[in-house]
User: Fold this.
Amino acid sequence: MKPVKRVLNTLAFASAIAFSGALFAADIDINADANDVALHGFDAVSYFTEGKPVEGSFEYTATYKNAIFKFSSAANRDAFRADPDRYAPQYGGYCAFGTKVEKKFDIDPNAWRVENGKLYLNKDKNVQRIWVKDVPGNIQEANVAWPKIKDVAISDL
Assistant:
């Protein structure tokens, strides 16, 4: 089996398990948990300022597209509020590779990449290894796919 097909099969299986009731946001184009917390509670700004994911706190939060984003500091929260489109993950915080294949998969906050000032997340490090083999091409394909699926429920994909 070819590596990409194997990953797609793995993603489809994992997606069925992961989304069997765990992840629903008030706005279906944002990946959030049952409490509407996005990015598994990690600080979106930290990817840019610290070069790594940092766990956020309920002490510092902001709401964006009906999802709650947590931050590690007031400064990061305020930076996000001032320009959420700059810091919010692409494709609503769903897996960038999954988006490319018109699916919404949950992410591992540690499988990330900032490319041209945008945050991209992947389901896990294995999927990320495939994603980074052609980042520009994958982004181009995901950018075409996202408008088609962003308002579609996971169960309908």
Remarks:
- Confidence is low (pLDDT under 50) at residues 6-26.
- The two ends are 23 Å apart (CA to CA).
- The chain has one domain: 3-149.
- Residues 3-149 form one domain.
